[in-house]
Specification:
There is one protein chain. The N and C termini lie far apart (about 40 Å). Strands 1-2-3-4 form a four-stranded antiparallel sheet, with no helix packed on it. It is mainly β. The protein folds into two domains: about 1-80, Thrombin, subunit H, CATH 2.40.10.500; about 85-173, Thrombin, subunit H (Beta Barrel), CATH 2.40.10. The chain is built from one helix and 17 strands. The protein has one helix at about 135-145, and strands at about 5-10, 15-20, 25-30, 35-40, 50-55, 60-65, 70-75, 80-85, 85-90, 90-95, 100-105, 110-115, 120, 130, 150, 155-160, 165-170.
């Protein structure tokens, strides 16, 4: 590992690790063996990824931060979906340093854009269904630099604000 930014335990007991220095997402089993690779190590083009998640269909969502995009990749390393632009405030905006994304229970994707400091809930076709924007600039700044977010249901969000060495608890309604 060079600069592991994110780790998440999968339903199968393995660990999904995002290594920003080696521009890779790696699934590691209990014997510490890499059983799935995507990125520079695996020969695929990622640039400073920050986060990854896996859904029940064995699809991996990757936040490819420096390439300003989200990817969904199959177990066979096929790119199933890519998102680089989103509608926001009447315009189509290019993602800029997406920081975090995860699959939601309803099948949608939750994404944080690092430049805007705004959270988006979107469908796989790119349609934005909800925008999470805070009037509190502390929350907005934290969302711009977050390394991890933990959601409880659809209302409470814990945001790691690594710029200010703290965790923020935010309630969205």
């Amino acid at each position: 590992m060079g600069d592991p930014h994110f780790v998440k335990q999968l339903n199968n007991g393995n660990w999904l690790i995002v290594d920003s220095l080696y521009h890779s997402v790696i699934e590691v089993n209990e014997q510490d063996e890499a059983v799935w690779l995507y990125g520079l190590i695996g020969g695929m083009p990622l640039n400073d990824p920050h986060c990854a998640a896996r859904n029940d269909y064995e699809e991996t969502l990757i936040v490819d931060s420096a390439n300003h995009r989200l990817l969904i990749v199959s177990q066979d390393l096929e790119v199933l979906w890519e998102c680089s632009f989103l509608p926001y405030e009447g315009q189509l905006v290019h993602l800029s340093w997406p920081r975090y994304a995860d699959f939601l229970q309803n099948g949608n994707i939750f994404l944080i854009d690092g430049k805007l400091g705004v959270g988006f809930e979107l469908k796989r076709n790119g349609q934005v269904t909800k925008i999470h924007r805070s009037m509190d600039m502390n929350v907005t700044f934290a969302m711009r630099k977050t390394r991890c977010i933990h959601m409880i249901g659809n209302e409470i969000v814990f945001i790691s604000d690594n710029e200010n060495s703290r965790i923020l608890k935010v309630r969205y309604t």
